[in-house]
What does this fold into?
Amino acid sequence: MAEMAAITPLHGRGLSRTQFSVRESSDYGLIRLQTFHRRAGQVDNLSRQLGLALPCPGTILASDELRIFWSAPGEWVIAVPRGSERVKLTELQARLDGMFTVLSVMTDSRVVLQLGGEQLRTILARGSSSDFRPSSFAEGRCLTTRFAGVPVMLVELPREECLLFADRSVATYLLDWFQAASRDC
It folds into this structure.
């Protein structure tokens, strides 16, 4: 799958309207961290081994070298600079050796769309029943939900921007959906 990473699912296509935009981001290398045997203290043990506090539901941990998004109970998505996934994976495996965890690179199976504009929250609300008001979905928050009928993870960024993580296979569908849903923007 290494050759797939070089071919972006949208082939450079995006959407630019006056109040809403979509562009594919190839900045992120993605690693999934999953833990098993979920018992009291398991996440704390993982955090100690990693030397950082793993984010709790709906939150993000951001540093200069990585971002960790809570994805599901016992599961996180770690975003690192594209191209450094294998090095970071090896480092994480060494730190978590002996723990009940699975680490896997998922860069080639995902698309990351960067959404933005004044009408961002309105467009998001058209595709999901989640609450996108600033009081519920604010900078530093993430949300795993169904959007436009497909499972996605959304991450709120500053300045009316958002990242959308989805299976690579639905990238064209999502771009088409955004084009139709944002005609009035």
